[in-house]
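CORE FACILITY INTAKE
Project code: CF-77B
Contact: R.S. (postdoc)
Sample description: multi-component assembly, three entities in total
Requested service: structural model of the whole complex
Turnaround: standard
Below are the sequence entries exactly as provided by the requester. Do not edit them.
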Amino acid sequence: MAELEFIHVGKTYGGEAPAVRDLNLKIDEGEFVVLVGPSGCGKTTALRMVAGLEEITEGEIRIGDRVVNDLAPRERDIAMVFQNYALYPHKTIYENLAFGLRMRKVPKDEQRRRVEEIAQKLGLADMLNRRPAQLSGGQRQRVAMGRAIVREPEAFLMDEPLSNLDAKLRVQMRAEIARIQQALEVTTLYVTHDQVEAMTMGDRVAVMRDGVLQQVDTPQRLYDAPANLFVASFVGSPPMNLFEATVEADGTQLVFGETRLELGGRLLRDYSGRRLVVGIRPEEVREASGWDGARVRGRVLLVEALGAEQLIHIEIAASPLERADLVDAAAQPPGPTLGVEELERSVTLLGRFDRHLLLTPGEAVEVAIDPSLLHFFDLETGLALPTTDVPAVAGVAG
Amino acid sequence: MSSVTQIAPTPVAPVVTRPRSRKRLRKAGWNVLGLLVLAVMVFPVYWMVSTAFKPGHDILSYTPQFIPTHPVLSNFTDAIHQQFFWNAVKNSLIVTSVVVVLSLVLAFLAALALAKFSFYGRKPFIVVILGVQMVPLAALIIPLYILMSRVHQVDKLSGVIVMYLTFVLPFAVWTLRGFLLGVPKELEESAMVDGATRFGAFVRILLPLLGPGLVATSIFAFIQAWNEFIIAYVFLHTPEKQTLMVWLASFTTLRGTDWGPLMAGATLCSLPVIIFFVLVQRKIAFGLTAGAVKG
Amino acid sequence: MASVAESGYIPASRRRRFSRRRVGQAVAPYVLLTPAAAVIGLVLAYPLYLLVKMSFQKYGLFELIRHQGKWIGTANYASIFHDAEFWHVVLRTLLFTAVCVSLTMILGTAIALLLLQVSRWVRIALTTGLVLVWAVPVIVAVDIWRWMVDYQFGVANWILTELHLGNFARHDWFANPWTGFGVFTLLIVWGAIPFVAITVYAALAQVPHELLEAAAIDGAKPWAIFREVTLPLLKPIFVILISLSIIWDFQVFQQIWVMLDGRPSSDYYTMAIYAFHQSFQISEYGLGAAIAVVMVLFMFAATLLYLRQMLRTGEVN
C-alpha cells in the first residue's frame, strides 16, 4: 500500500495539444479515487502514465516515496485491470492468475496457495483449468480483478473495467469492486466515463476535461457544490438545468423570461445588472401547489414515467446558454420540440416529480423554485459564484 | 488498403521509459540494421536492373560496376528482337487473361455457395479446397502428361490453361469466400426489406462491395499464371507456343551467357508482376492467415 | 433465409411457390459448386488416382503410345526402395528442406521483429523492398542468381574476394554440390523471406496491445513477454507458414532445373527432379510415379498439419 501522487504532470504527443495539462492529484493510502470525464479528456492517459505505459512529458509521478518516471512498468509494483480484461487467451485461468507471481519469482507452492485463495474468494475455484474464451463476461472480469489482487501490489489501476459488461452485471460488479477495494484497502485509481459509476464507487472523484483537472472532491460535495459549469453539467443524471438570467435590484432579484425571482437577500450584489448562468437540479424543481414563493410558468413538453417517479420536460421562457462549450456536450438538453410561438426564447426545464402528479404534454404548468437551492455561474468563465450571505445550498433534501 | 505500411506497428514490449538520448540512439541502431537488411534483400533485383542498362563491356568486366555510368537501351532491344519474344508475349497474355476470367467466374460461383448457403457437404468441400493447395505440382506432372496426351492437349495452350485453372481455383475460391463473408448479412437483408429481390440485392449491394476482392483475386490469378514454369515447360514443346517464362529460361541455352539481354528480358518479364504485386500483396498475406491470431 | 416459408403463415395458394423456392435453395449451392469442382476433379483428383495406379504399372514409351500400362504390383516400389540413389535423394531433399525452412522462418521472423523496431520511413522502405523481392518471378530470380554467382564475371566472387574471404576468382559454385546447394538455399530463402516476414509482421500487429501491456505490468521483461505472450499467440501463424514452406521447398524443381540448364548431375537430384528424370528423360513413367507417390506421402504430413491448424482456427465455419 502506498500513496500515489501526480505533481505538475503533463503529457504531449508530438505537436498536438497536450493530452494532460499540469495535473496535480494526490491519492492517499488505501483511498479509492475515480478519474472521470468524457472520452478524450486525458483520464486514460493519466492512468497509463502511472502504469508506465505512456511516457511522462512533464512533472513527476510518485508511488509511495519513489519517483517512478523512469521505471519500467514491471518495476512500479502496480496492478492494472484493463477495459477488455487483457486475459492471456492461451493460458488457463490458473496460469493467468499466477503469471504475475511467476514473473516475480514467487516460489511455486506460494503461487498455488495465493492463486487458490483468490480464486476461492472470487468464486473462480471451479474454473482454474479453463481458458478465458470459455468464461462469461462477468467471470472474465473477475479473473482480471483476481490477477490484480493476487499480486498484492502497491496500487490498483483500473481502466473502465466495467464498460464491457451489460447493464445489470455492471451494477453488480460495481458493488463487488467497491467491496473488494474496501476489504483490501489498496490505493486505487479508477478511470471511467460514467459519472454514475464515479459517484457510487469513489471515496473522491476527480473530474477531468480536455486534459485539465476540473475539481476533486467527495461525490456529495461534487454534486452539491460543483466548481464550474462543466462539473455541474457532467455530474448528476439527469443533468442540472442551466439557463441564463439577469441579476437586478442590487443583487436581490433574478429575472428570466417573464419570471422575477426574489432571492431573499443581496446574494448576488457583485453581479447586479449583469447576466449569469442559473442552475437547478431536476429534483429541486417542485410542484407549485402549496408553495407561496416564486413560481415559474411553463408548458409540459414530454412526460417520462420511470416507475417510482416521473421526469417531466417543461418548456419555460428563458435564454439558453450562449456558451455551449462550457458544459458537457452529452448533457445538453434537447431544444424545444413543440414550437411554442409565444415564447421567443425558451429552455427545457427537466423536473423530477412524484409519480402521482398527472400531467399531459401541452398542458400549462406552474413550478416552484426555491431560490436558496439555485447554483450560479459566471457567464464567461463558467466558474461557480460564491453567494455572499447564505451558505452554499448543501444538503437541503427534496 | 493499398499498402502494407498502414498496419499499425505494435511494439513487442510496451515502451519502457528510458532517458531520451539512449532511446534515440537505439532507434538509430535499429534503423541502420533495417536499411542494411533492405540493401541485402534488394541487391539482386538492383543487380538485374542495373545490368540490363549496362553496355556489354561493362558487364563483362572483372571489376563489377555498381552504378551504370553509361546506361544503354541496347540490351532491351536485343531482348525484344530475340527469337520468339513476341510469340511468348502473346502466348503469356492469352493464357493469363483466359485463366483470370475463367477462374474468377468459377471461383466466384463456388465461393458464393460456400459463403452464403449452408448445405450438406460444405465442410468437406472446404477441406478439399484447402488440401488441394498442398498437392505437389511436381508429382502430378507425370499423370497429367499422360492424361493430356490422351485428350490431345499436349503442346496446346488450351491444355495449359485448364491446368493453370486448377491450381489457381482453390486459392481464388478461398479468398473470395473470405470477402463474401466479410459483407455483413444485414446489408443484403435491408436491401431485400427495402424491396429488392435476392438477385437485385446481390447485384446492387454485394457486387460493388466485392470489387476489391475480385480485383485482388484476379491479380493473384494473373501472377500465378504469368509466373508458372514447370507445366509450360513440360507441355509446350514448339517454340512458337511457349510462354514468357519458358522463353526466358531457354534464353541462355540459345546464346550462351549473354547477360545483358538476359537481364533486360528478365526485367521485362517481371515488370507486370511487380506492378500488380505492389497493388495487392497485403490482401494475399492476409488471405492465407487472416483471423489466425485471436486476442 | 427461409423464415417466411417456415412461419406457416402463408395462404394455401402461395404455398406451392414457396416450397418450389425452397427446393431451389437446396439445389443452388451444388449447382454453383459444380464447375469449379469439375475442373479440380478432372485435373487434380483424377491425375492423383492415375499417379497411384501408374506406380503399380510398367509404364514406358511403348505403354505411353498404347495408352495402357501393364500391372506389375509393387515392383516399382521394390525397385526404388532397393536403389541406394533413391535414399540419397530422399535424404538430400529432407536435409535441403529442413535447412531452407528453418532459415526462412528464422530470418523472416527476425525481419518482422525488426520492422516493429525501426522508424516509420525505414519500415515503409523495407516493406516495399520485401514486396519487390516477393514479386520477382521464380525463373527471373534464378537468372539473377545465376548471373550473380557466375564463375567469371559474377559479383559474388568479386565481393567475397574483396572482403578477403579467400580467392574466389573463377570459383565455380556448382562444381561442388555442397556449395551448389548453398546457392540454391540462398536463392530459395531469399525468395521466401518476404512472404514470411510480411505475414509475421501483420500477425504481430494483430496481437492486442493490452496483452503485452498487461504482461509488462505483471512484471515480465521484454524477452519474457515475447516468449510468454507474443509467441504463443503467433503459433497458429507459424504452423501455417511452416507447413506451407515445407510443401514449397520439398518439391523444389525449377530453381535447380533452370539454374543447371536442365541438365543437373545426379548430385543435384531432389525427389521432384529424380521423379522427372525417371519419367521424362528415361521414359520410366511407372518408376517416376512411384517416386512421386512417396513424395506426396511425405508432404501429406505437412498438409495434415496445415489443415488441422486451419480447421482449428475456425476458418472453415
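Facility notes:
- Chain A touches chain B at residues 52-56, 69-73, 89 (CB under 8 Å).
- Helices of chain A lie at 43-51, 93-103, 108-122, 137-150, 167-184, 195-201, 219-224, 229-234.
Invoice: internal transfer
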